[in-house]
Amino acid sequence: MGTGKSHIFAGKVRCLDCKSTMQKTTNNAKKSYLRCKLYCILKGNLCSKHTIRLDRLEEIVSLRIKEHFKLLNEKEISDELEDTMFKVDVKNLEKELAKVNDEIKTRDTVLKNIYIDKIKGTITEEQFMALNKEFIGEKIV
Ligand SMILES: [Zn+2]
Fold this sequence. Notes:
Largest sheet: 3 strands, antiparallel
Distance between the termini: 83 Å
Bound molecules: zinc ion
Number of helices: 4
């Protein structure tokens, strides 16, 4: 007979034959079963007294849940996340960084050349001052 207490599958497990919900029953060996409610209430021939052991059902359900999560492969999920957002951002940032580094290198080269030109005497003092001011100013900004 049912204990009156609802089980974790209450309202979720249905009898395959009559589609009525399954009621918890406990046998003499203190094992819990789920049994067709229609049979429990009316007995007779309305439905058969097929049962499923509650611990077995819990086992099966937890196994299924675990399988389901196994199917959601962890690596796949992380890869997908990386592909969709992380990787794209990192790639863009790397590109930006490379661009900035190139620019710094170019400016350093230009600045070096200005100094070399000054030393060589190929540019005038005024030109040097103007270029120097321009490039150093830009570099700081
Ligand atoms: Zn039934």
